[in-house]
Structures
1.
Amino acid sequence: MSAQQERTFIALKPDAVQRNLVGEVIRRFEAKGFKLVGLKLVKPSVETAEEHYAEHKGKGFYKGLVDFITSGPVVAMVWQGKGVVASARKLIGATNPLTSEPGTIRGDLAVDVGRNVIHGSDSTDSAQREISLWFKEGEIADWTPVSNAWVYEN
Ligand code: IDP
């Protein structure tokens, strides 16, 4: 992986799967020019969900959040590209979909904060932690897109 490249963890939450939004969200990341290097449909264990959301332990919405994220399958993904961590957060939009900008995933596709369709790592450190929580090493597949020269100047 070149120095410019980084990876982020993206999860399509159970509401995205139930509402048939999986293709729509993946389309946006592909169209932007990012590279998919990991993808699986999983029903997360309570342990995984609690570890993933450990920073929110003790907050009023924590139990509901863990119940929700473990309620059905989640599409867990790793996306790679230049600046992908911060850029994915912009594509996703603000946490509360009622205040997310139109044009963002949450702004266009969600209403309630507890049903906001998608998770994206908030920093490169979080991304590393979350990728190793959700994926084994052999589950990440690096490859060279033929479009590289048309997405990147150098
Ligand atoms: P983020 O997903 O935009 O990074 P965080 O503040 O890390 O936002 O919160 C994690 C998740 O917890 C949110 O995506 C949302 O699903 C849920 N959440 C956050 N705040 C609330 C709340 O006030 N009520 C219900 N759910 C919340």
Note: The pocket of inosine-5'-diphosphate is lined by residues 61, 65, 95, 113-114, 116, 119, 122 (CB under 6 Å).
2.
Amino acid sequence: KLLIEANGVSKQFANGTQALKNVSLTVERGEVLCIIGPSGSGKSTLLRTLNALEEISEGDIQVNGHSVHNRKVDLNRLRTQVGMVFQQFNLFPHMTALENVMLAPLKVLKQPEAEVRARAEQLLAKVGLADKAQSHPAQLSGGQQQRVAIARALAMKPSIMLFDEPTSALDPEMVGEVLEVMKALALEGMTMCVVTHEMGFARAVAHRVLFMDHGEIVYQDAPAAFFDAP
Ligand code: ADP
Ligand code: ADP
């Protein structure tokens, strides 16, 4: 069964910019997609329409069989199903790493605190930050903050994770540690859509690479075919 099914999606911003033109896309459970293409080609807009952070002008997007651009959609429920990691980590500065990871399951899902705490500790360990649970974001490197942001998204037990240029704001020496965490997630079978300029990652981890240009998916194929084409 398809996890994401987008059909004929177009997006025009209020200023007239046509960011997406008749884009169709399917994502299967367990699939890892990398979306590449020049700046301004619509990659980020496409990703943001998948969890209704951005409205669409035309078309339809289904996540888990539910239309997400629909007045009846339960946005809280959708956002638990679709985790997102941004270029800027967007952690709450006054909260510890652990509190950042615990916040949404406590406030949105209203799960019991002991359970949420235990899971948050596990997730911080999983991203290699067991010893930073009590640190505040300002005490963490960019790479560490981004790993906390990944743990925070995973705390909602999403069925898919969206990554919007997750390493673009990082100093070069921190890119690898974030990509390693993402690679481990992919190997566990997490469904992922990753907008990235990291071609090594796309080649090694993606099942399918999409190339966007001027608001359209102009080419998509397995990474071997994509990168090794003559
Ligand atoms: P990419 O992620 O590939 O760099 P984007 O999806 O960010 O591209 O942008 C696609 C196009 O939409 C670009 O022309 C960009 O300038 C435009 N755009 C993005 N966000 C907005 C916005 N909020 N208002 C108007 N135009 C926008
Ligand atoms: P799950 O996949 O978590 O088992 P289901 O798809 O069986 O959930 O849906 C359970 C209930 O929640 C159904 O009534 C379904 O219509 C509703 N539902 C699931 N996802 C959404 C969503 N994103 N927006 C609105 N309702 C939803």
Note: The beta strands are 2-12, 18-28, 32-36, 58-63, 66-67, 82-85, 160-164, 191-195, 208-213, 216-221.
